Structures are given as structure tokens and as C-alpha cells.
Amino acid sequence: MYVLNREQKLISQIKNLVGASGRFIGDDCAILPGNLLITTDALIEQTHFSLNSTSLNDLGWKAMAVNLSDIAAMAGLPEYAVIALSAPEAFYISNNVIALYEGLQACADHYQTSIVGGDITRGPVLAIIITIVGRARQSGVLRRSGAKAGDVVLVTGDFGASVAGLRLLTENNFFSFPYCLEKHRRPQPRLTEAAALIEKTGSRGALMDTSDGLADALAQISQASSVGMQIDLAAIPMHADTRSVASQANLDPYDLALYGGEDYELVACLPKAVWQAWHNQSPESAKAFKVIGIVNDTDNIQLMFGNEPARQLDLKKVFQHIS
Amino acid sequence: MYVLNREQKLISQIKNLVGASGRFIGDDCAILPGNLLITTDALIEQTHFSLNSTSLNDLGWKAMAVNLSDIAAMAGLPEYAVIALSAPEAFYISNNVIALYEGLQACADHYQTSIVGGDITRGPVLAIIITIVGRARQSGVLRRSGAKAGDVVLVTGDFGASVAGLRLLTENNFFSFPYCLEKHRRPQPRLTEAAALIEKTGSRGALMDTSDGLADALAQISQASSVGMQIDLAAIPMHADTRSVASQANLDPYDLALYGGEDYELVACLPKAVWQAWHNQSPESAKAFKVIGIVNDTDNIQLMFGNEPARQLDLKKVFQHIS
């Protein structure tokens, strides 16, 4: 069932090319000796954002948030960021640089990360490439490959709001559903939630962020862990505004939730007993997570609606990776 | 004398914006607690290279070398690299990715650095953004700001060959002067030489690489250290092929050497006695360095030709920084 997409094929080739060190490649961060985590992510104008629909301050926030989300995806602790900036010469006026860096810095500050260096170059479009160095927490890290049959599937936050917000922006509809706009513009990486999770559960389990969509994250975890899942569509958290945007646009809200991407939420798989104990003993920290399904030993992801089988997960709709 | 150029002004603004963590910004690498070094550098098509005149294998080598040179510039030890790649969709065919990664990997292997992760995105031109994480050596690091009056000014290798090679490439002259072409295409970061230097001299001194040209490095060290220099043009090492390219093109060879850039050599300032002791006791490791001048307590860089004052250092000719 898990057909490699084009990016995965390239990554697989690259892993072969880089030989032994390729063992680090495949999760959201490289995990290195000394519990060092490294992750790098690029935001490129026209591919990832349009300056017509984002302020530079929001863009700075988002560029940092996207990278921090990769640290959250392994339940790590971010420490330092370096920022490579490329832009046409005309971009480099003080007001632009200040607005962009204020956004970058606001997000870095919020998540206690120090911006410690960078590079400034000329290029045809605005591009922001951030590398974050962090540490694994004492309890270890959670990878994509740690899910086992019988685990519950948990998620943070809600889904589909970011792509709903993007839709509003492209329609110049800036006022109707601020929740969706805010979720698209200033995503909140789930570092605190990931820290609570690994503190409560240790490193037995699987974790990933949903930068490329909930469906993609479920598929990636299933593939890396060689398991299947049963997911209850009715249990996937969605904000009322997201449902309204879907309804007004005559779109299936579950398509937004599954395939929309850029939610930067977490998907975790944990032993059911661990989850129940956590939920019973520390309902405050557990309440950031909701159960949406269960891991099984099939080789597919069965979508349900309550107890009724629903549509198939459509991997062709999964957020295009080389993006 | 040291007028801030546009990049330096922007960096200065950014340092203010990022507040306390800005103390790490300004050298070739950020130096972090735990002796961690981080550096990031972008190579952007059309700004830094043309696919008409470089093979992807050479480009991969160079992208890695440029970043490793920033570690050499602080006498550090490189450990890990992450690579963010952005390119038009048509670029992403196996042969291109393999050729590029073979070059990246060859250089990383040569300098014992592990490629541990990356990101692949779509963008209007080919862009390769590498971040390297390394360690300071036991003896510490050498910064730009450590030069003192009375120090000797030392350099590795030779100057002007890379820009001479670039000139040959843009003229489609691929055969006459292979030394210059090779120096432009596959620069050799001076990690071994930097390691020998700091082992022999400890962390008293100044060091920088000449990615933006010899003149730029001399000016940056002078500015950061609040010193002046007297530099003997006749002592600047130049390869015979570089002189030939200059002569055939009716160019001043010293302009190539001073302002050409992309040599990725080192400039170091050391106490004269330390240099003499090193030179006497370990001529083998010392011979990688040549004396080209002396640090003084003026506020300018006086170029000499032997004992005669020569031209002024022309900072307007210094390699354009936002590039």
C-alpha cells in the first residue's frame, strides 16, 4: 500500500549515496551522538508562501515555527537557530529585514531558542532556510518507527484550519474566520505538548508532526513502523471555522483535515495502558491529546466513521512533498 | 577607514534585533556552549554559480567546501552537515541528484564530515544551503578579533587563482590553465592547516578565511581587532598560471589576488615570536603558511611593494557581500 512518492524515492537514493551517515536520515531531525538533534527546512517564495498574502513578520514567525515543529516531532528541546536568507537586492532595505527578523525572533523567543548566526545572499526570490540544533530530552526521543499494534493514535490541536486559512487568503477574504487565518500564518509548534508526552510515556511510542498533512503523518508512521491503523474520522478534531470554510466552499471538511497540511500538530502512537494511566493521573497535561484511532497489524489505514467503515485513505491526495 | 558595507550594516541591525544571542554573530561560525560551532552558507544559481560552467559534481564539492572553510576559519573540527536543496521540479531526476550528492559526499568524506539530513524543496533556481555543526579544538578557537600590533600576517596557499578560473570559464577556455579552473571548481578548505596552526599557537591570534577575498579578510580582521596592517604585495603567493591569466587578459594580478575572492585560503595573525618558534621547530607544518605583512597600531592597511609604499587598499573593490 505504501507507494514511495517522488521525494521519498529521492531521499532513499540520497541515503544510499551518503552511506553510513545515512542512518541519521528519515526522521524529522537527525539524532547524533551527544543527544544532539539537527533539522533544516527551507521556505521559498512562490512555493511555500506569497508576499501578497503574508506579512514579513508573520512569515518570519512561520519560518521559525516550521523548523521548531521538527524538533517537537521528536519530543526534543530546541536550543539554537541559524538563518540563511536569500532575496533579490531590492528586498534588502531596513524595514523588510526588521519586519522579517522581528517575526523570526518573536517565535524563537516564545520557544526559548537563540538565533546565533546566519548568511545573507542575493537570489531570485525570498528564501528563508533555518537550521535548528537541539537536544534530546532525558527520556530520549520518539521516532516515526515506534508504533505497535494495539497502540492508540493520538493527535494535538485540530486539523484543516491552515489550508482553510490559505484558501481564505487566496480569496482575499481576510476577516471572516480569523482562527483559520491565524493558524495558517502563525502556527504553534507543539513543543510543550511533546515534552509532556515523552515525560509521561518515555521513549516507547511513535511521534511525528503533521507538516505535510494528517494523512501523510499516519502513512509515514505506519510505513516506518510496519503497522496499519484504524482511524475514526468523527474523532479528528476540527475547528468550527474550518467546517464553515469547507461548507461555504463546498469542500469535504475531512479532505481538508486529512490532506490539507501545514497544521504543525503532532500524531503520536502509545500503548493503550500508558495513555490511560496518563489520562487518569494527569488529565491536565493529557487533555492536549485526543484519541483518533488504533494501531493494528494490517498493512493499510482504514478510515471509519464511528463504527462504520468510511472512505479509503487516498495517498494521491497527500500533500505534494517536493514543495 | 572601515566603512561598513551594506551586508555589514544589515548584520549589525540583525545583531541588535536578536538581542543577547547576537553576541554569537559576526565570526565565521557561532561559538556556543559545549564548544559547539555552527555555520550556514547558501550557494544560489546565478548569484554564486552558473550551471553552464560547472558540473553538478563540482558544484556539490564546492558547496560543501565553502561551508567547511568557515569551520577552518575558526580552527574548528567539522562533524555533521545538513543540506537544504531547492530546485525547479525538472531538476529532480536521479542523475542530477546523484551527481550533486556525489560531489557533496566526496568533499564531506575528504574532510571527515557526516551528511546527516536535509530538506528537498521546489524553487525557481538551484540553491544549496548547508549547515555544518562542529567542535572547537582543545586549544580553543581563533577569531577575527585577536590580532595585535606586532603580529605577523600569515596566509595559506595562493591568491587570485579562483577568480582567474572563473574568468576562464566564462570565456569557455577550459584547457589552458587547469590549476585556476580546479581552484575555482573544487576549493580545498584549509582544515588541516588551521588545526596545525592552533595546535602550535594556542588561541592567541586572529584567523579568518578568504571567501570574500584577501583584501576583505585583511579589512575584517583589522576592523574586528582595531588594528592596522602593512602588507607586502610582493610577498602574496600567486600561482604562475594566475599571473598568466592576468597577463593575457591585461589585468593587474594584484587586483585578482586582493579582490578576486573565493580562494578559501586562511589569513592568520600571530605573535612574531610564536611564528618564529613554530617555523624553527616544525618547519614541515609551518611551511603551509607564508608571511605577507605585519600588524601595526594604525587604522589603515598600507600596501607595500617590498620596502616601497604601493597603492592603497581599495575597499570599493572588495568582493560584493550580498552575493
Protein described:
The structure is a homodimer of 323-residue chains. Chain A is of the alpha+beta class and 323 residues long. Chain A has eleven helices and twelve strands. Chain A has helices spanning 6-17, 56-72, 94-110, 161-170, 178-185, 191-201, 214-225, 240-248, 253-259, 272-281, 283-286; strands at residues 30-32, 36-44, 76-87, 114-122, 127-136, 152-156, 206-209, 228-232, 266-270, 289-296, 301-305, 308-312. In chain A, the strands form two sheets. Chain A has a seven-stranded mixed beta sheet, with helices on both faces. In chain A, helix 4 crosses helix 5 (178-185). The longest helix of chain A has 17 residues, at 56-72. Chain A is globular. Mean pLDDT of chain A is 90; it is low at 319-323. At the A-B interface, helix 1, strand 2, strand 3, helix 3 and strand 4 of A face helix 1, strand 2, strand 3, helix 3 and strand 4 of B.
The amount of beta strand of chain A, in percent, is: 15-25%
Report the uncertain regions of chain A.
319-323
User: Order of strands across the biggest sheet of chain A?
Assistant: 7-9-6-10-8-11-12
Largest sheet of chain A: 7 strands, mixed
Taking Cα atoms only, what radius of gyration of chain A do you get, to the nearest Å?
Answer: 19 Å
The averaged pLDDT of chain A comes out at: 90
Shape of chain A: globular
Q: Count of helices of chain A?
A: 11
Distance between the termini of chain A: 23 Å
